[in-house]
Amino acid sequence: MAGAITLDKLERILKNAGFTSIDIERAVVSDQYANKWGINDVDLKHYLRSSTITAYKPV
């Protein structure tokens, strides 16, 4: 997928920006979300993930 990055790279970016206690929780996207892309020949749920990111930045 265009624009996608690995979890390792995302975590490095957040660490370099000064964030700590980084937690990235991934989940499979819903059928409704996957179907909105309109690609019928590919099961996009194998490629798309939803993520919740929690991180803290000391002040």
Explain the overall architecture.
This protein has 59 residues and is of the alpha+beta class. The chain has one domain (7-56). Helix content is 25%, strand content 29%. The chain has a two-stranded antiparallel ribbon. The chain starts with 6 loop residues before the first helix and ends with a strand. The relative contact order is 0.28.
Write the layout of secondary structure elements.
Blueprint: H1 7-16, E1 20-28, H2 31-35, E2 49-56
Antiparallel strand pairs: 1-2
Which key phrases capture this entry?
59 residues; alpha+beta; two-stranded antiparallel sheet; 2 strands; 25% helix; elongated
Task: Summarize this structure briefly.
The chain is of the alpha+beta class. It has one domain (7-56).
What is the percentage of strand-forming residues?
25-35%
Largest sheet: 2 strands, antiparallel
Overall morphology: elongated
Order of helices and strands: HEHE
